[in-house]
Amino acid sequence: MRRLRILLVIFCLATEAHAATVWIDTDVSIGSPIREVDDAFALVLAFHSPEIRIAGLSTTYGNASLGHTTRAAQDLVERFGHSAGLTVDNVFAGARAASDLGRRSEASDTLAGALEKQKITYLALGPLTNLATFLRLHPKLAHRIERVIFVGGAEPGASFALGPNGSFRIHDANVFKDPAATQAVLQSKIPLTLVPIAASSHLLIDGTDLRQLAKSGGAGNYLSRRSSIWLWFWTNFVGTKGGPIFDALAIIPATQPALLSIAERSAQMDQAGNLVVTPRLTSGARPVRYCTAFALETKRFVMDRLMTRPSRE
């Protein structure tokens, strides 16, 4: 038993030593009953993942106003960010709207400072306004971003209709809210991994899951208590078997990429402002990596991580 404990300690230390450095951009809105809670699930999953080291969090409009998303991010970090070595001082406010594209902010300045010290993987859980602003203001630092993982993109003809009859239609929200920012990121040479709604909409949390989270205490209990109305909306109004935690899937490429099916694709913006992904590289398009599916054990992995009780939580 003692030998096993020693091996586990060595494994954890080795994992932390090789942890990839990430920056998370979020429009988290948990606490508001009419908003999505998936960003909060994604953030807790990131806090509990030793494979990554979080250099900072930037906030943006999207699911809610910038003021709301910033307060929600600060609250989550204050409650549960200690396990990832974070404090509220690691949360930086960014864009208030798409019209802020190119306007300097605390988020753009701090990201630039972080990239001067180290290379970073950028996890974009909301509209790309903050990242596009950074690229406009600090183009010489763009090569320091190793890759961008973005929740968006769709193949031609993809349906954003959910529910048993496909009656509840949603849009590719992060692209829809700032197509110009998406275009700016596409035009950069930064490697891009897309995690689309077509895949992430299948990562569902149901009532049984919320009860398990509640019993786990800590962050799991918090997520459960704040997600009951959200789950009711999806299961009773939309008619799905659970609530989709879209953004949580975007943490997986940085933590457990073997759980995902990733294909080489090309992507470009069409005239309607959609981020279109196709199998072949066409004129005006650029290569991207595209998540097509995830393994069955992904749900179990996510739940286990959410229910983790780090010693510093």
- The termini sit apart by 26 Å
For the biggest sheet, the summary is: 9 strands, mixed
* Helical fraction: 25-40%
Q: What number of structural domains do the residues give?
A: 1
Mean pLDDT: 92
CATH class group:
Alpha Beta
The strand count comes to: 13
CATH topology: Inosine-uridine Nucleoside N-ribohydrolase, Chain A
Compressed to H and E, one letter per element, the order equals: HEHEHEHEHEEEHHEHEHHHEHEEEH
User: From the coordinates shown, what is the CATH architecture?
Assistant: Alpha-Beta Complex
Strand order of the largest sheet: 3-2-1-4-5-8-13-11-12
In CATH terms, the superfamily is Ribonucleoside hydrolase-like
Structural class by sheet pairing and helices: alpha/beta
The shape is globular
Low-confidence stretches: 1-17
Count of alpha/pi helices? 13
The radius of gyration computed from the alpha-carbon positions, rounded to a whole number of angstroms, is 19 Å
Beta-strand fraction estimate: 15-25%
